[in-house]
Design goal:
heterodimer; A: 615 residues; mainly alpha; Cytochrome Bc1 Complex, Chain C; two-stranded antiparallel sheet; B: alpha+beta; Rieske Iron-sulfur Protein; 2 domains; electron transport (chain A); Menaquinol-cytochrome c reductase cytochrome b subunit (chain A)
């Protein structure tokens, strides 16, 4: 060592005793030499340090409130440089920690390393394990997405069933009766402050006691004693690197951590599941119907955790130690079995055929799979919206979703229209996610409303009277004037003329709303079709069309199926402009000027119409 | 460079007399109070959710004409003003209810969609004969009773909410009828339905 450096170290040592500290830290005797089996505790420490580092950086970009939590995580994931990787590392390292914890714990119990004088250190270890579980529970909620929200909601609801203090405990945990800002502020304080602080406060004595008692060597020793530095530290470092590498690969493979749609208390997330390492608990609860739940959620887990704390004293005799090892095997085996069972229950419908005997199970699983698929679709869509140049409004991403026809249309259609209408894509390679196929539709199929294909089908003598069009159940139009006209007149028209009429009507549907391309193409064809409708083929005998004002009782074809036309139509189909007295059972959804008297408001109507038109 | 006075200090024992006793007592009490003061103040504000009073909102759900008396459940969002700490959300969706009007019944029955087991959202697919909870697979008949009774994971039947019909005032005395409910949030996991408020 060069002399200025030596002088500096001497000076530092004189004031702090750093040499002695370092010596004590590094020159620990390892009985029997360094071994790979001793690395697990160190990898856990490294994993925790890694979590503190990534967590601190995440914290710098995270904002805990119901309007900003999801939004800030979205920003980390999709807008910040390397943000997705940062999230991914934090997310998968949390998984790795649980796995490492299981290995570390199993090894200690298996080796009987909890025996005197190490009892207290074992107790601290079990406490540390609980703190790590607490960290993963609180962290799961912070993105405030559907998955975290609903899973945590189930978790805290269970906690509220704890005898005596349950409801109060829940109120304190979530900061009120409902989930909200204070749920996030509290969970963040727990996750980033209280629990890591507690973890450090326990980890320091855990390591100090470990050094005091020395390493619990596994007999038979493999060689002569060695020092911690550099032999064991080398192995520890390589193991730590291995863990980080594995997590890194997982994070890249997973594209960071998942982010589902923003939490919406009014929009159920039917695929809510806890993180995989808590799935066993989730499955375990299914065994306890009704009020027996308290056994599954508190009594049995409580007894097990207490037993874990007592292991060092139970294990004082050989029989006791065997009991501990047996319990360990049963617990780990039980966890594996329950987890497998939970996964099998959820994916049952994907792996098996439905039979009479498994119907209940199959349907439950199908519901889960549908919900998962739907949630993916929602998440994709809201992220697409949030990434658009419009960005997220101050009210948060949830309002993006609430005003999106693509997301709300199907729900509103199911609520208001699907009682009579269907919405089914009959073309090949159809995307079935939007299909709503009632078994006994009493009104037309509304898929592709106003498009050329749709208009062409109406004017097709073979299709006009089928169940998707005027031939639905109990239709008064099945043998009406329109069907009659299409079936008798259209076959006599040139195909070219029919195409022109189709193009013109489809162009009418584009006169308001977002379907703009329809007007730009085939201008001549459209103009020709326009003339045909107006004067030549008899449409205006019954229909009104632009300045040709006929009172034949058939719906106005001006702007036919355009946004404005449809809005007015749904408001009141019985108006003179539309079906008047010939209206079949379609209700008027907004006939009044006073919005309070109407079934649907303009915004809702707009969402349905935009979705139907595919705008 | 050892401190000359150190050995004396180490060997010195505390003589027990009234003066030292009060010295120790004061040291312990003063120290405890010094640390406890900020802690207690913090804890009190932390406990504030326990001191807040809440009430169940009355909410207009739908027009009666939206619920035909065919005995089929229809899902409606519960939209009401919602206050979350410092934010007031006007007309926010705070939950969901199923309205079922049986044949000939004047009033629909309202079920909250919150599962009495663990608070998941009970789902219903049009045409199905059961409500199904997606989480722990509880199933309920369309009248809200548990499909398998006490063998079901859920500890009680689906929770019903009080329904009230109100007629909208209009000039021609023929205003539409609205369905209002009291949106009660029930505790989960108990045999009895207990409001969280």
């Amino acid at each position: 060592m060069s002399s200025p450096l030596r002088t500096l170290v001497d000076w530092l040592d004189n004031r702090t005793g750093v040499r002695g500290l370092l010596h004590e830290a590094l020159y620990e005797r390892v009985p029997g030499g360094a071994r790979w089996r001793y690395v697990w505790g160190s990898t856990l420490v490294i994993a925790f340090v890694s979590q503190m580092i990534t967590g601190t950086f995440l914290w710098m970009a995270y904002s805990p409130s119901t309007q900003t939590a999801w939004e800030s995580v979205f920003y980390i994931q999709y807008e910040m440089t390397g943000g997705w990787l940062l999230r991914g590392l934090h997310h998968y390292m949390a998984h790795a920690m649980v796995v490492l914890l299981a290995i570390h714990f199993a090894q200690v119990v298996w080796d009987g390393a909890y025996r005197a004088p190490r009892e207290l250190n074992f107790v601290i270890g079990v406490a540390l394990m609980l703190v790590v579980f607490g960290l993963s529970l609180t962290g799961y909620l912070l993105p405030w997405d559907q998955k975290g929200y609903w899973a945590t909601s189930v978790g805290t609801n269970l906690a509220s069933q704890a005898p005596v203090v349950g409801p109060e405990f829940k109120k304190l945990a979530i900061g009120g009766v409902d989930y909200g800002h204070h749920t996030l502020t509290r969970f963040l304080a727990l996750h980033a402050g209280v629990l890591p602080g507690l973890l450090i406060a326990l980890l320091v004595p855990h390591i100090a006691l470990f050094r005091r008692h020395g390493l619990h060597a596994r007999e038979p020793l493999k060689g002569p004693d060695a020092m911690f530095w550099p032999d064991q530290l080398l192995k520890d470092s390589i193991a730590a690197l291995g863990v980080v590498a594995a997590v890194f690969v997982l994070a890249i493979y997973g594209g960071g951590a998942e982010l589902t749609a923003p939490a919406d208390p009014a929009n159920p997330y039917n695929a809510a599941r806890p993180e995989w390492y808590f799935l066993f608990l989730f499955q375990f609860l299914k065994w306890f119907p009704g009020e027996l739940e308290v056994w599954g959620a508190f009594v049995i887990p409580g007894v097990i955790v207490t037993t874990l704390f007592l292991m060092p004293w139970i294990g004082r005799t050989r029989g006791g130690h065997l009991f501990n090892v047996g319990l360990l095997v049963i617990l780990l085996g039980g966890v594996v079995l329950l987890t497998a069972q939970a996964v099998r229950d959820d994916y049952f419908a994907a792996w098996y055929e439905r039979t009479e005997a498994n119907a209940h199970k199959f349907d439950a699983s199908q519901a889960f799979l549908d919900a998962e698929k739907n949630a993916e679709r929602e998440a994709e869509r809201v992220i697409e919206l949030a990434r658009s140049p419009e960005k997220i409004p101050p009210t948060g991403a949830l309002s993006l979703m609430a005003q999106d026809p693509y997301l709300q249309g199907p729900k509103l259609f199911a609520q208001n229209c699907a009682g009579c209408h269907t919405h089914v894509d009959r073309s090949d390679g159809a995307d079935s996610t939007h299909n709503m196929d009632g078994k006994s539709a009493t009104a037309p199929n509304l898929f592709g409303l106003g498009t050329r294909e749709w208009v062409a089908a109406i004017l097709d003598p073979d299709q006009v009277a089928d169940a998707d069009h005027f031939g639905y159940q109990e239709s008064p139009f099945a043998e009406g004037t329109m069907v009659d006209w299409v079936q008798s007149t259209v076959p006599d028209l040139d195909q070219e003329h029919v195409d022109q009429v189709v193009a013109a009507l489809a162009a009418e549907s584009a006169s308001s709303g977002n379907r703009v391309n329809e007007r730009g193409v085939d201008k001549q064809k459209i103009a020709a079709g326009f003339q045909l409708i107006k004067e030549e083929i008899g449409c205006t005998d019954c229909h009104k069309f632009h300045e040709v004002n006929n009172e034949g009782g058939a719906p106005d074809l001006t702007g036919y199926m355009s946004r404005d036309w449809l809005m007015d139509f749904i408001r009141n189909p019985s108006s003179e402009r539309f079906y008047g007295e010939y209206n079949d059972r379609m209700p008027a959804f907004a006939p009044h000027d006073n919005p309070q008297l109407n079934q649907l408001d303009d915004q809702t109507l707009g969402l349905i119409v935009d979705w139907l038109r595919g705008d | 460079m050892k401190d000359k006075s150190k050995p004396d200090l180490v060997n010195k024992t505390v003589s027990w007399n009234r003066r030292t006793f009060f010295e120790m007592l004061t040291a312990v009490v003063a120290g405890t109070v010094a640390i406890a003061t900020p802690f207690v103040v913090g804890v009190v504000s932390f406990l504030s959710p326990l001191f807040k009073k809440n009430s169940n909102p009355q909410v207009r759900i739908a027009l009666l004409s939206q619920i035909p008396d065919d005995g089929m459940p229809r899902s409606f969002p519960v939209v009401t003003d919602h206050v979350d700490a410092w934010t007031k959300y006007p007309e926010q969706r705070v939950g969901s209810v199923y309205l079922v009007r049986n044949q000939g019944a004047a009033k629909p029955i309202a079920f909250t969609a919150k599962c009495p087991h663990a608070g998941c959202f009970i789902g219903y697919k049009p045409g199905d004969e059961l409500f199904r909870c997606p989480c722990h697979t509880s199933a309920f008949n369309l009248d809200g009773t548990r499909e398998r009774g006490d063998a079901e994971v859920a500890p009680r039947d689906m929770d019903r909410l009080p329904v009230e019909l109100r007629t909208v005032e209009s000039t021609d005395d023929n205003g539409p009828t609205e369905v209002w409910i009291e949106f009660i949030d029930f505790q989960t996991g108990h045999k009895e339905a207990i409001s969280t408020v």
